Structure formats: C-alpha cells, structure tokens
C-alpha cells in the first residue's frame, strides 16, 4: 500500500463538536456585547483558540490587553469543556468506528493531528481514549494550521515518513497544512473543494478504497 499511516483531524472528521464551540464563543461574545453568529463561527474552524478569539474580538470597539485575552480564552474553554461533558460514545458514528477498525486491521498506523488542546478529553468522551497510536494536539505545538507542525510531529510520533502518511481533513487550513508537511490529504466535508487535496471523500468509509490503492 502507498500509505503506512493515516493522521486524522479530530473535530469534523472523527466527531463533531462545532455546536459546542459555537455555544461557548457565543456566550463569551454576548457577555462582551460583541455580535457573533454562525457565519463568524465558521471562520474559526481549524484555527487555534487565541486566533479564534482575535476573530471574535474584531467587532469590538475597544482594545483588550494580552492578559484580558488570555482570561477570555480560558473562560471560553471552561464553558466549552462543560458542554463537552454531554458527549458520549453515541457521538462516534458506527461508520467511523468500523472504518477505523478496518484500517487498523489492514496494518495501518492511526494518529490524531488536531489543533485542539481538548483532543484527549474529547477522545475519552467518545470511547477512543487509548485507540490511536499517536495523538498530537494543541498541547504539543506552538503553531496552528495551516502551519504543518501538528502533522509533522504526528508523523514523527508514528515513526512514518511524510510521503507515507495520509492526512484526513475537513478544513482548508488543514489541507494546506498537510501539503506543506509533504503529505497527501484526503478531504471530506467543506474541504472537498480544495484543489490541493489528493483525494475527495464523499463519506468517511471511502477511506478504505483510498488506503487500498
């Protein structure tokens, strides 16, 4: 097989936490008197927490200190983590779990490459706490996507050269990060329109065919 390892983005690929992010950012924005809607929230996909905060604060008519920004980012995250407690193994679709099991049975290494600092907590909530061979998340990196750092480090954790890794992403920034890291990318969801992706997935299980080529 061309690929020895598959590195997955977490949110929007393995599971979906967009709604919880939106509700947490919305609560913070409302408290600060800043307009925030789902269109603005869409710009935050695949972006780090602090960069997301900067986007949320764009509509404010005041300037915030770095200390205030750190405080607000942590406040948002606390709300988000409380919302994540609602997640359970039911939030992991049968299609995704079955596909992961079949990929593993083929001998492929499986990893996570996520900008989220809550990746391990989310994995524990959906029953995949010890499932992946490597988890590289926001706690391991200093630069978020489209910088390739998260995928480069994930590949190193998997002891697999970049050219033998396939990244699965649902955001343009993630596709760009994979390509910048010298890896092929299989794009799903909104990222399917990204020309840099080597493969387009209509559904998650399409990965089985890609991995078999």
TrEMBL record:
It is an enzyme of class 5 (isomerase). The active site is at residues 9, 11. Its EC number is 5.4.2.6. One of its GO terms (molecular function) is beta-phosphoglucomutase activity. NCBIfam families: bPGM (TIGR01990), HAD-SF-IA-v1 (TIGR01549), HAD-SF-IA-v3 (TIGR01509), PGMB-YQAB-SF (TIGR02009). InterPro entries: B-phosphoglucomutase_hydrolase, Beta-PGM, Beta-PGM-like, HAD-like_sf, HAD-SF_hydro_IA, HAD_sf, PGP-like_dom2. Mg(2+) binds at residues 9, 11, 169-170. Binds 2 magnesium ions per subunit. GO terms for biological process: carbohydrate metabolic process. Belongs to the HAD-like hydrolase superfamily. CbbY/CbbZ/Gph/YieH family. This is Beta-phosphoglucomutase. The record marks 114, 145 as: Important for catalytic activity and assists the phosphoryl transfer reaction to Asp8 by balancing charge and orienting the reacting groups. The keyword Phosphoprotein applies. Its cofactor is Mg(2+). Substrate binds at residues 9-11, 25, 44-49, 52, 76, 114-118, 145. It catalyses: beta-D-glucose 1-phosphate = beta-D-glucose 6-phosphate. Keywords: Carbohydrate metabolism, Isomerase, Magnesium, Metal-binding, Phosphoprotein. It comes from Candidatus Ruthenibacterium merdavium.
């Amino acid at each position: 097989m061309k690929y020895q390892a598959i590195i997955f983005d977490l949110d929007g690929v393995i599971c979906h936490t967009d709604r919880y992010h939106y509700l947490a950012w919305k609560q913070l924005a409302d408290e600060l008197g800043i307009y925030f809607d789902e269109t603005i929230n869409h710009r935050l996909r695949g972006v780090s927490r602090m960069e997301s905060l900067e986007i949320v604060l764009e509509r404010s008519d005041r300037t915030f200190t770095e200390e205030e920004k750190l405080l607000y980012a942590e406040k948002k995250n606390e709300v988000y983590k409380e919302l994540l407690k609602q997640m359970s193994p039911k939030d992991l679709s049968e299609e995704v779990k079955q596909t992961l099991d079949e990929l593993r049975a083929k001998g492929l290494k499986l990893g996570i490459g996520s900008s989220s600092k809550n990746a391990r907590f989310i994995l524990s909530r959906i029953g995949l706490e010890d499932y992946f061979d490597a988890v590289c998340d926001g706690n391991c990196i200093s630069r978020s996507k489209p910088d390739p750092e998260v995928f480069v480090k994930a590949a190193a954790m998997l002891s697999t050269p970049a050219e033998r890794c396939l990244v699965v992403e649902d955001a343009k920034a993630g596709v760009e990060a994979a390509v910048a890291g010298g890896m092929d990318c299989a794009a799903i969801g909104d990222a399917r329109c990204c020309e840099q992706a080597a493969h387009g997935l209509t559904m998650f299980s399409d990965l089985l065919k890609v991995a078999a080529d």
